[in-house]
Design brief:
295 residues
Amino acid sequence: MKLGLIGVGNIGQHFANRLLAAGHQLIVHDRSREAQDRIVARGAIGANSVEEVARQTPIVLLCLPLPAIVAEVGAQIAQAGGVRILVDLSTTGPSVTKTVEAQLSAKGIAMIGSPVSGGTVAAEKGTLAVMAAGPKEAYDEIEPVLHVIGKNVFYLGADPSLGQTMKIINNTLYATSMIASCEALVYGVKAGLDPQTLLDVINVSSGRSFATLERIPQCVLDRSFPVRFTTELLHKDVKMCMDEAEKLGVPMLVNPAARQFLAFAITQGDGPRDNVYPIRHIEEWAGVQFGAKPE
């Protein structure tokens, strides 16, 4: 297919690489010229603006960091013309997705809200979970593209906002379980348990989660803290979930504690750091450290 991709940063670059490897013709644009040039060097065609991408490609994919940017780019695409299907791979939230979808549908453009989950490692390997929603005919057309970037592709219904609802629920559950795991693991170390043994037991028992299976072993145990998904972006997703649940009158009593801790971490300068980095505050309060750098 001839595809446009707007946003080729931490996650988007892996989408671009996989789409190029699969033989798709790709036109890319990013506000960072360095990020764009990196993908052009691998065979993509560079574009100087959102409108330039829209004029050249019938199907455009978005991979953008914030709902406000998705709204801005969506409006530009609606005005530019030429696009038939817009696929939003970002975590945009249901409310903004509904606003963008209304603008696009007025111009005859179908929107697929299709956020992904799994992080940069899964994006590179093509093993992401993909949560797609939107008009079925448009979904059927772009489904092969989604299978290039993800392993588990789900169609959630005709309303494009349903994929976004699914994504913020997932990310909120991750945030809450991750922070609760950090507290419990720090407690275990202070009580005298070995960090690796703690994880080994939990990960074959009922307390295991994505945080204990993947993120904490990969990022905290060796104190490397590579940036895979920032604290400020996770906080953004959790806050969206709280706000959307409130609109529907659904009580949230436990998950807001995770949002509050992430908000505190941001005030301490952790916003651009990986979302497991704030375990350091729990460690500081407890007077112990979970894991150590390899000798």
